[in-house]
């Protein structure tokens, strides 16, 4: 039975996944649960970047929002030759983040790990001793502290730049109900949960616009998640449907997980 994915990626990213799913023979319903809002850089950012040995980007949003915030702060594009320390490198968590860095033309290290999570980056052999190095962590507001703690343990001095925040996506009751009905009436509904905050926002929208049975029904459906940590959290929250972790956390990983659900 062919599954239909509830594509919960932000509005600017959902269409690319929808196209990839369609090319692979899968149906989907676009249902953004988060909106991305830019955050200004501190006035010290120019100096901090010039001193940084490494920049770590946790997501594609981090790359895109830094480019926007840099233009707002300086009135020009970020140029490695002018703005970065010689030999500085950018490191990505995830293939989409890597591609976004390369599109910007910023010096980007190769992905040296299969798991696109903070722990995999910290496990790199060349990251075990960062004594004396300056690292800029480009991220969203909030989030996990694993990278900050891991970098400190390796001896690095870390400066965090939160360049975006995640907001609850705006929906009208009519639009939400049309989206929900389209997905919930599919023969094999599967939901994409790419972050814990995304899960929380999905639950908020279901509670706000759905009926009293919708969340209980949701928790019985199949889910594709982006980490073992999210899968464990769902189980603790009372999720009863089957969960598959997308490996890697990319369009290919999502399609592979859907293919596995289809074969069951």
* Secondary structure: helix percent: 40-55%
The CA-CA distance between the termini, in Å, is 8 Å
**What is the number of E strands?**
10
Along the chain, the helix and strand elements come as EHEEHEHHEHHEHEHEHHEHEH
| Main sheet specs | 5 strands, parallel
CATH topology of the largest domain: Rossmann fold
Structural class: alpha/beta
CATH hierarchy: architecture of the largest domain: 3-Layer(aba) Sandwich
User: What is the helix tally?
Assistant: 12
Determine the strand fraction and express it as a percent band: 15-25%
How many separate domains? 2
The dominant shape is elongated
Q: Estimate the mean pLDDT confidence.
A: 91
CATH uppermost class of the largest domain: Alpha Beta
Give keywords:
alpha/beta, Rossmann fold, 2 domains, 12 helices, elongated
Give a verbal description of the structure.
- With 264 residues, the chain is of the alpha/beta class.
- It folds into two domains: 4-33 and 171-263, Rossmann fold (3-Layer(aba) Sandwich), CATH 3.40.50; 37-167, Rossmann fold, CATH 3.40.50.
- The protein has helices at 14-23, 45-51, 60-74, 80-83, 95-104, 118-122, 146-153, 173-184, 196-209, 214-218, 228-237, 251-263, and strands spanning 4-7, 27-30, 34-38, 54-57, 89-92, 134-140, 157-168, 189-193, 222-225, 243-245.
- The strands form two sheets. A five-stranded parallel β-sheet has the order 2-1-8-9-10, with helices on both faces. A five-stranded mixed β-sheet has the order 3-7-6-4-5.
- Helix 3 (60-74) runs parallel beside helix 5.
- The longest helix is centred in the N-terminal third of the chain and has 15 residues, at 60-74.
- It is elongated, with a radius of gyration of 20 Å.
- The termini are close together.
